[in-house]
Structure formats: C-alpha cells, structure tokens
Design goal:
By secondary structure, the protein is an alpha+beta fold. The protein folds into 2 domains: about 10-200 and about 365-455, Aminopeptidase, CATH 3.40.630.10; about 200-255 and about 300-360, 2-Layer Sandwich (Alpha-Beta Plaits), CATH 3.30.70. The protein is about 30% helix and about 20% strand. It contains 12 helices and 21 strands. Strand 12 (about 240) and strand 13 form a beta hairpin. The longest helix is centred in the first third of the chain and has 22 residues, at about 10-30. About 45% of the residues are buried.
Length: about 450
C-alpha cells in the first residue's frame, strides 16, 4: 500500500513489521491496566516505557504524580523543527462480566478482521500507532526533521488526576509543542477518515433525597407521607422541557459560543437520520432538530440512573424514603462546568431545598479554531492514507482531558486536534471491544504520513 506522501521505503517497513507490531500490541493488551482498581500502575507504566524503547524512543521516563504515573518519551531532531505532542492513555475501563465477552477481555484475539480485547481501541491500539509509525520511519532511514514527544497517562478512565496535576505545573517537557495530536475515539460512522477540532465537556453529579427515616407501608401511610422518589422525579422534571430537548435551568446555556463555521461543518457531515434511527431501534429522536446539530453543538442534561424504593422481584407496596439520581451534562464551548453546576444547585434548591446536589467529576469543553494551519497537515495525511474525503467535526460528542493542556501557559493557544483511528463500532467501554485491523494499519500510516508533512510546516 503506497500513499501519496510516504516514501516507498516507509511503506515497505510498515508492511514487513506489521506482524511484529501486532504482537507488541497484544503484549500491551494482556496487561489489565484498569486505573479504577488496585493494580500496580507503576509496574504497568514501566512496561509501557520499555515498549516505547523497543520501538525507537530511546529517551523515556516516568513522571511521578500523586496519582498514576505518566510515561514521557521523545525523539528530538532540531531545536528549530516543529514539535508535536502525541497524547494517549494506557489505562483501560474494567472488563465487566467476562460472560458477556466472546473471548477473554485480556487475551487479545483476532476474529473477522478485528483485534478483540479491552483497550484495543481505547486507547492502546490507537496510541501505539504513533509508536509504530516512528519505528517504521527510523527503520527506513526516513525520519523527518520533526521533534516527537509522546505523553501517556494512566488515569484517563478515572478523571485524569495525574495528567491534571502535571499540567498544573510548568510541564516543561511539552511546553514547546506546536501541536497536541490525540488519536482517540471512533471514526465517523461512515468509516471515513475523521478530524475533530475539540470535544464536549462533561459535568457529572448526583442528586440524593431522603424523606422519612425508613420505607413505609403505602396503605398505612400513603397520602400524607411524602415519597422521596416522587419528589426527586419532580425536581428532575423541573430541569427539563420536552423530556430533555431543552434545559430549563437559568444560566445553563451561558457562555456558549457556536460559530457560523461550526454550523457549516456540521451541515456537511454525512447523515441519514432515518437510517440511523432504524439502526438504533428508535421510534423517534429526542427533538426535531438534526441529529448532528443536537449532538455536536448543543449541551445536554442526561439521567444516567434513577433509583428509589424497592428494587427486588415481585411487588412491595412501600413509600420510598430515599431516592438517588445520577446525571451527566455534556457541555459545549465556552460553558464553564463550575458555573453550570452552581446553576443546577441553585435551581434544585429553589424547587426542593431538601435535595442534596453533589458534583462527582467535570471536564471543561475545548475547541481549536477550524482554520488552524495545523489541520491541513492532518487532513492531507488522512487523505493520503485512506483515499477518502475527510469528515470534519467541530467537536467530539464525548469528553477528553484535552482542555487541561490549556493550563500550561505556553500551550494556551496551541492547536489540539483529535484524530480517531478506531472503527465506529469499536465497543469501547463495553463487552467485545475491538479494533479493526485495517484501522490499526491505517493509523500507523497516517501518523507516519503526518510526520512527513508536519516537517514541512511553515506555520511554526
């Protein structure tokens, strides 16, 4: 497979090493690097560092934090050359019930042209593409005049506390970056190559409510005694219009910045809403507004879970004395998660002051201007490799810790781009997570082609 911008020697190096790259990825996937459990993240981080050294990153180290260690590696060619920071994460989500997997989650298996394992797409298979691209360029004696820095964290699936701690310092290792490049998330569902200029933020919160000091008989007490579940539902209902199509919290929409260019990008995204509705088994969407517009340009308030009262089998006629709701809000630029939380807290207190509101976690949204020159190098590399038109998204619907790179003064205006390499049905966070082999190979070639084009950048 020869691309328009990769020397034949690099293509040949990738072809000849694909089996070795796959085996090395399998070694990574066998490690149950679940950051939310009591695993030895220091040992796993060291294994990641050894993996980087094996494939060409001679200079690597662990950056210790009060949480999970970061793995940093670099290849420097010229102080005047452009510098890219490839960011990724080596931790993974828990596997869940292994009975839901068709093969063991930490025993990588190839089926139907895909690698099945926890972390295959999120994120080991994606960040390793950068590593193998570097290795192929070195093997072909075609490494361009660029500076490559790799920053891998071990706590992305647990809120990125270590990365945030690091980025709140001077972060001297990466402060000279001209671009932060993140291979994460899925391709557009058309499977066309995808470039994303930012991501939605997230606010996770919990509502808890208690009325009486125990559940009560609904016949003996029903009517005069308040039901915690009923009252909590009333509070949640007061926050929404048309089942969540609009948010009825004063101040919730403050700060939102959507440009005409953003709307033009969204309008150009391939879409067949009716076909997608059928695929998902839906009778309707939450609003009449176009799917991509709702997903990428508007914030949400979403109920994750709602519990209260009897949860067992059969019936039990009680008045629930406790109820809990878990809620997430997906936020768009330039909403402030703290301000949104405060708006929700004030709203809930006004409706029912006995309901407690607790913030669990938050990531701010972030976005790079779509006219950034850095995007041209990425788009050309994607077109070189995938031979298809690039789908450009103003935002990733999900959330990443990318906004925290802005905490480093020198990176406040540096472009941060998300370039997913994983198939749209990768099942990340779910059973049978998998990375298609063609996406894995295309990811390697894309990173290699990008570095060649990045070396020619005139904007740094």
């Amino acid at each position: 497979m020869t691309t328009n911008h990769l020397p034949a020697s690099v293509d040949a190096a990738i072809d000849s090493r694909l089996d070795a790259y796959q085996n090395a990825l399998f070694d990574l996937l066998r490690q149950p690097t679940v950051s939310s459990t009591e695993g030895d993240m220091d040992e796993w981080a060291d294994l990641v560092g050894q993996f980087l050294a094996e494939f060409g990153f001679e200079h690597w180290k662990l950056i210790e934090t009060n949480h999970d260690p970061l793995v940093y590696a670099e290849i420097l060619t010229d102080p005047e050359a452009p510098t890219v920071v490839f960011y990724g994460h080596y931790d993974v989500q828990p596997a869940g019930d292994e009975a839901d997997w068709d093969s063991p989650p930490f025993e990588p298996t190839i089926r139907n042209g895909s690698i099945y394992a926890r972390g295959a797409g999120d994120n080991k298979g994606q960040f390793s593409a950068h590593v193998f691209a570097v290795n192929a360029l070195l093997a072909a004696d075609a490494f361009p005049t660029v500076n490559v820095k790799l920053l891998l964290e071990g706590g992305e699936e647990s809120g990125s506390p270590g990365l945030r701690e690091y980025l709140d310092t001077e972060a001297t290792e990466i402060a000279d970056a001209d671009l932060v490049y993140i291979a994460d998330g899925p391709l557009h569902r058309s499977r066309q190559p995808t470039l994303i200029y930012g991501h939605r933020g997230i606010l996770m919160l919990q509502l808890t409510h208690q009325t009486a000091n125990s559940d009560l008989h609904s016949g003996n007490f029903g009517g005069p005694v308040p039901n915690a579940a009923n009252e909590l539902v009333e509070v949640i209902d007061s926050m929404q219009i048309d089942a969540g199509a609009e948010i009825a919290v004063d101040g919730f929409y403050d700060g939102i910045l959507v440009t005409d260019t953003d709307r033009e990008l969204v309008a150009a995204i391939p879409a067949d809403d009716e076909e997608f509705k059928e695929e998902l088994g839906l009778t309707h969407f939450a609003s009449d507004r176009p799917y991509n517009e709702r997903l990428l340009l508007e914030p949400t308030l979403n109920i994750n879970s709602l519990t209260g009262g009897y949860q067992g089998s059969g019936g039990k006629t009680i008045i629930a004395h406790e109820a809990t709701a878990m809620i997430d809000c997906r936020l768009v630029p330039d909403q402030d998660p703290d301000a949104v939380f405060e708006a929700i807290r004030v709203h809930v207190e006004a409706v029912n002051p006995d309901v407690n509101v607790n913030k669990l976690a938050a990531y701010p949204p972030t976005k790079t201007p779509v006219d950034t020159p850095a995007a041209d190098n990425v788009k050309h590399a994607l077109t070189d490799v995938w031979s298809e038109k690039v789908v450009e998204l103003p935002l990733l619907g999900g959330s990443l810790p990318a906004a925290y790179f802005r905490n480093v003064n020198e990176l406040a205006d540096v472009p941060v781009l998300v370039v997913p390499y994983a198939n749209p049905d990768q099942n990340n966070h779910a059973p049978n997570e998998h990375l298609d082999l063609d996406c894995f190979e295309n990811g390697i070639r894309t990173s290699a082609a990008f570095l060649g084009r990045f070396a020619e950048s005139a904007y740094t």
